[in-house]
Amino acid sequence: MPTLEAKDTLFSTKTTLNCRGKLLPLDTPQVMGILNITPDSFYAGSRLGSLEKVIQKAENMVADGADILDVGGYSSRPGATDISVQEELDRVVPAIEAILNKVPEAVISVDTFRAAVAEVAVSAGAAIINDISGGKLDEAMFETVARLQVPYILMHMRGTPQTMTTLAKYEDVVVEVVDELQEQIVRLKQSGVKDIILDPGFGFAKTIAHNFELLRRLDELRIVGLPILAGLSRKSMVYKTLGIGQADALTGTIALNTIALMKGAAILRVHDVKEMKQTIELFKKTIL
């Protein structure tokens, strides 16, 4: 299959996101800090078991320069246990309310594929919806996002967290990811969604080889004309490739995120905010 070509003359990427009236600039890379309100997230160091720990982590991330805090109550690691809507709400909503009570200036995204959770989370103060399923696991999601008029992160995944590893089969992973995202982009725009961010879904229905091919050609996604989010932090493509544990995967994460920045990523979703802000500062001095 032919490869995509992403030339500067073919795209004009949106440079701001409207987050509940606050404009988030994307002409300089932004950092999204991960707040997992789950007992079984893939990286043990990110698991937060109490509201006190959530608030402390959120305050530390904002102090370290996080532009967005991504709050999730459903573990999406391969083979993760499914939970009910109510259990997800019970994890996510109190966390959002507690964070905004302590850090009212925080921009919060809710990491969910369920429209009902997204709607309640936005009512609680979330300003962005981050959907790992790209609208494919809840038919009500796109209508909900359009009605709420909040930015939407459209991620590529096949299947569910329970089945995705069986669906990692591509002739050309980049072309097929773009094609599948394009189908959803058309639906989103027809629904009236204005702010869309693309996430190629590193690690979701993709092998390690697929992940590296996606990263190598990440700039080809820019042909769509939408901002790109890269979620590479401490993933298996880092620690399995290097033969180390997740706890030792920060250096590798910095290396891959630097490549993502060079390929046009506008948002980095990370566990280690301070280190990624420092990486971006050096990148800006060198590239921007």
Q: Secondary-structure blueprint of this entry?
A:
Elements: E1 16-19, E2 22-25, E3 30-36, H1 51-63, E4 68-72, H2 85-102, E5 108-111, H3 115-124, E6 128-131, H4 141-148, E7 152-155, H5 173-191, E8 196-199, H6 208-216, E9 229-230, H7 236-242, H8 250-262, E10 267-270, H9 273-286
Parallel strand pairs: 3-4, 3-10, 4-5, 5-6, 6-7, 7-8, 9-10
Antiparallel strand pairs: 1-2
Helix pairs in contact: 1-2, 2-3, 3-4, 8-9
Question: How many strands, what sense, and barrel or not for the largest sheet?
Answer: 8 strands, parallel
Class by alpha and beta content: alpha/beta
Low-pLDDT windows of residues? 1-12
The rounded Rg comes to 17 Å
Q: Would you report the number of β strands?
A: 10
Q: What's the overall average pLDDT, rounded?
A: 91
- Residues in β-strands, percent: 5-15%
Termini separation comes to: 33 Å
Oligomeric assembly: single chain
Order of SSEs: EEEHEHEHEHEHEHEHHEH
3D shape: globular
Instruction: Count the DSSP helices.
Output: 9
Helicity range: 25-40%
- The strand line-up of the biggest sheet is 8-7-6-5-4-3-10-9
